[in-house]
Amino acid sequence: MTAGPGDSPTLLEAGSQNAVAHALGIIGDEWTLLLLRYATALGVRRYSDFLERLPISNSVLTNRLSRLAELGLMEKVAYQQRPPRFEYRLTKRGRDTWPILLTIWAWEATWVPQHEERLPVMRHSRCGQPFQPLLMCAACGKPVEPRDVTGGFGPSGTWERSVPAATTRRRSFAGAGASPGLFPQTMALIGNRWSSALLGAAFLGAHRFKDFEQRLGAPPTMVADRLRTFCDLGVLDPAPGAERADWLSYHLTAKGRAFFPVVMCTLDWGHRWFKAPEGRALVYRHTECRRIFTPRLACDKCREPLRGGSDVSIEPEARA
């Protein structure tokens, strides 16, 4: 892999993990999401400010900030020489994660009633209304639901290349600050390499246990555990199979389908910033306009497109 700076894509090696795997390997870490959230929404840059605002240990914070700089999402810049002090500024690659953060925030606020702290209300800065991000087709400007998009693997897309490697998943350290717990169900869906793969399989039309097993290449016990977790969360709904009643068929619920904007924004970010020489890992089309589907977000109140994180204001937080 040829690392690029924060304003140019990373060039991947042929046959290596594709854009999907790299994106999920980064986004599927809760501390990373929180650091990006504070940097994007609140403009936090300095180590001491991150440490003050988050229930995080020095070792975890140092690890994640170094990782974000290594991956090109932040730039480590000296602001003082004696003694040396640094701040971590978002690069264009880092700033471009705002649609992912916004859709995760909206999904958790709508579908997950219990959080360790109250999730602030998001307000559209231009119309002044509390809002939910609305997923739109960038080509035709129309709202999009999961059923409106079709597609599958592109030139660099296989199940094996799309699953994040275990080494890319930075686990939280034990002890102080071991788990922030602010996006609990999002992490249950994408914070585990097999969970994210199973979720992708569900959106690509897998329903039966053997379909998930074959596509993921995961041990049957792992597939069974992930399916049970998704059902417990209310993301999948098991039903008797058409061939045999004891062969369950798993279908996305309304809660599961509502996670679609998170998936699409994550894939779009990954494809823009991690380029495989063979081409895209996944290719989707909007069935109505028949063009390649590129996600865009809009305010569901005024329908104006959201141009960036500056379009969203966050009301003051209240800790539990």
- Shape category: globular
Instruction: Classify the fold: give the CATH topology.
Output: Arc Repressor Mutant, subunit A
Q: Tell me, what is the CATH class?
A: Mainly Alpha
Count of distinct structural domains = 1
- Report mean pLDDT, rounded to a whole number: 88
CATH H-tier superfamily: Winged helix-like DNA-binding domain superfamily/Winged helix DNA-binding domain
CATH architecture: Orthogonal Bundle
- How much helicity do the residues have? 25-40%
Q: How are the strands ordered across the major sheet?
A: 1-9
Low-confidence stretches: 167-178
Q: What series of H and E elements makes up the topology?
A: EHHHHEEHHEEEHHHHHEEHHEEEE
Q: Termini, distance in Å?
A: 43 Å
Topology record:
Elements: E1 10-11, H1 19-27, H2 30-42, H3 47-53, H4 58-70, E2 74-80, E3 85-90, H5 92-95, H6 98-111, E4 122-124, E5 133-137, E6 149-153, H7 159-162, H8 184-190, H9 193-203, H10 209-216, H11 220-232, E7 236-240, E8 248-252, H12 254-257, H13 260-273, E9 274-275, E10 282-286, E11 295-299, E12 312-314
Parallel strand pairs: 1-9
Antiparallel strand pairs: 2-3, 4-12, 5-11, 6-10, 7-8
Helix pairs in contact: 1-13, 6-13, 10-11
Domain HTH hxlR-type: 18-116, 179-278
Keywords: DNA-binding, Transcription, Transcription regulation
Protein name: Winged helix-turn-helix transcriptional regulator
